[in-house]
Amino acid sequence: KVTASNKATVRADPTSLYFSEQDLYNSPTKIVSVKVTVSSGSVENNLQLYRSSGERMNGKTRQLCGSKSECKKGTYQVDFKMGSELEDGEYYFAVQGNRERFEAENVDESADFRRDTFKSNMVTVDKYTRPFYGG
Fold it and tell me: Is the pLDDT reported for residue 33 higher than 60?
């Protein structure tokens, strides 16, 4: 039985972003530097942002390695822009292991499309909230 395995680590830095009152007024973006290290196999050329709940953030995808469809062994660095439109909370980045066809007999068909997901550490987004003055 031949099993090709994908191994990768994803690291995001800084681990917390704070949007101040001034920031929110100016609608800025903050940069999170995401480092993906592929130690074996390959990963899809898509770095995706998710909420901690596992919900994928639409339109929040970056390419890791140019225009290729897969990124092989190596280290890739992506500066991911995070905007103040994101809700407060925790987020993570993830890459998918590349789909590999197994060239072996007696392999469960469902295993063909089983993909590994490599997740980063959590990044916390925190925003200034206007103090509430009860009256």
Answer: yes
